[in-house]
From TrEMBL:
It catalyses: an epoxide + H2O = an ethanediol. GO terms for biological process: cytoplasm to vacuole targeting by the NVT pathway; lipid metabolic process; protein catabolic process; proteolysis. It comes from Pichia membranifaciens NRRL Y-2026. Aminopeptidase that preferentially cleaves di- and tripeptides. Also has low epoxide hydrolase activity (in vitro). Can hydrolyze the epoxide leukotriene LTA(4) but it forms preferentially 5,6-dihydroxy-7,9,11,14-eicosatetraenoic acid rather than the cytokine leukotriene B(4) as the product compared to the homologous mammalian enzyme (in vitro). The active site is at E314 (proton acceptor), Y403 (proton donor). A peptide binds at Q156, C157, E158, P284, F285, G286, G287, M288, E289, R596, M597, K598. One of its GO terms (cellular component) is multivesicular body. It holds the Pfam family Peptidase_M1_N. Zn(2+) binds at H313, H317, E336. SMART domains: Leuk-A4-hydro_C (SM01263). GO terms for molecular function: aminopeptidase activity; epoxide hydrolase activity; metallopeptidase activity; zinc ion binding. This is Leukotriene A(4) hydrolase. It is found in: Cytoplasm; Nucleus.
Amino acid sequence: MAGKDHYPHISAKLREVLKPHLPASSPEADPSTLSNYEKFSVLHTVLSLDVLFKDKKLAGSISLSLKCLQQTSSIVLDTSYLSIHGISIDDKSVKDYKLKDRMEPLGSALEIRHSLAADDEVTLKIDYETTDRCTALQWLDPQQTNGKKLPYLFSQCEPIHSRSFFPCFDTPSIKSTFSYFLTSPFNTLTSGLLKDKKDSANNVVYHFEQPVPIPSYLVSIASGDITGAAIGPRSTVYSEPSFIDNCQYEFEHDTENFIKTAESIVFPYEWKDYDVLILPSSMPFGGMEHPNCTFATPTLISGDRENIDVIAHELAHSWSGNLVTNCSFEHFWLNEGWTVYLERRIQGAIHGEDFRHFSAIIGWNDLTNSIISMGNSAKRFSTLIQDLKDRTDPDDSFSTVPYEKGFSLLFHIEQTLGGKEAFDPFIKHYFNEYKYKSLDSYQFLDSLYSFYSDKSDLLDTIDWQTWLYEPGLPPKPSFNTKLVDECYTLAAKWVDIIETAPEKLSSKFKSTDIAKFSANQSGVFLDKLCSYEGQNGFTWKNENGKKAIDLMTNIYSKYSVSQNAEVIFRWFRLLLTANITSSYQDLANWLGTVGRMKFVRPSYTMLNKVDRPLALATFEKYEMIYHPICRSMVKKDLGLN
Ligand SMILES: [Zn+2]
């Protein structure tokens, strides 16, 4: 007998495509947790933790208010490298529990024997502390900070590191409201609204509340020499004191404008305040969308307000990801594809439609490069919907694909339906339908077909099999190329002169060629130059290619002195593509100043290709300044495991 049809609105044609994949329950079960989360809802969570800088650990307790949904004989939580000191249920001590053997990469299940019937409500309290093997927390020594005076702590839980921070149902399928009581000697921030601060001995107890239910991966902590400055009526930027003026300058012009624009596209911002914390350089990501307080890399602070798109992205997560959440990291594109889509809608509303398309083309190029660089693993990791059922580490499945293939699909749907105006009502509908919930890709499709029930023929023209399940590049959407054409034309001119009249190089180019380029346009120009390598026999590595690079270094000198990491990185990539040996050490030095994986990983990969001993020596020198996630990924990239 067939089970309940959880997806009644999808068309017969789409159903044929989905048939081998449709799950028995909805949303689909999360394979990246060892917990029995499906038997519970979490009504509220209280985290009470002391930040112990000397021992580099957090110690305290977590209280989970649980409602049982199905009869069970145990409560099974995710943990990873935690030290459990005691457990109670409704204030009665529980002795019958077991921390099971580790099952890589998912950690150790904590099994608490306790019978519950459906609708039972209990409060489970666990006293515990983190250990030195915690993968969610990075403890920086003073010399790893800007100020060099105080230590610093920050967390990064996504995708499955919360379990090494606190015992929990570590799945995006479970959401809870939170109270946090965090005791630290230094200023402390978390994913919530500050209620009050109380002095206690040499410490302060910071009480935060998060009234909107959030999944475990959005919980955060940062503590250190942190100060704040206003960047809008509901926004503050935080950073170490020496950096705060630069941070304020970078964001004060755009933040409120972004929030208002996003509100007009989706619906009013639900979280009250929107703040940004600029972390020390070892932050491995561009940004992390912690509710109320985005954590971001200092590579955004370029002095030109040109990397602000990351803030539009993290802000957009306030709707996609933080309100409407993927039920597991197999459906991560629902978080990231939607967020990139909204980020570009925000940019388009402010800077015009040409800009949205320009940004989409950059994304398409990133997607292309990312799939090429995956090599053999592209077959496995470049599909839109991922398969993590063999307990693959979600960190290994993360790439540009969920972001840019996800964006491209939404853009393609928008275009298929007749453009933005036709798609806009669905945006509001979808985010309203699924806010505070977690969903799978099939529910998204069901919602789409339900909303456009009169246009299912149009939706059926989409090649769903290819978009959802085939590896590699999807069909390329048609973009308006106005803003990239200037960059492509200049790049083509360089290649043409190098090939046909290299003796005329110095007379054909001048510094004003790039004077009007935005940092993003410079990035596109440099990417395009690199992309010629190996095409129709062209190479930067021969005498004429190197001569051209020499000339470019002189007349486009703003690239070699740029403070914008997006530009610096691409400039290095061109130099290394041309085997300019004098640049290898410069790149190695730069790798001591950045920790963002977007730059660190490909930089090591390209340095490794041209000078492996230097790549290894550089990694050995700097590995301890990188975040544990970054360190382990670079190790894999360099074949050091
Ligand atoms: Zn994102």
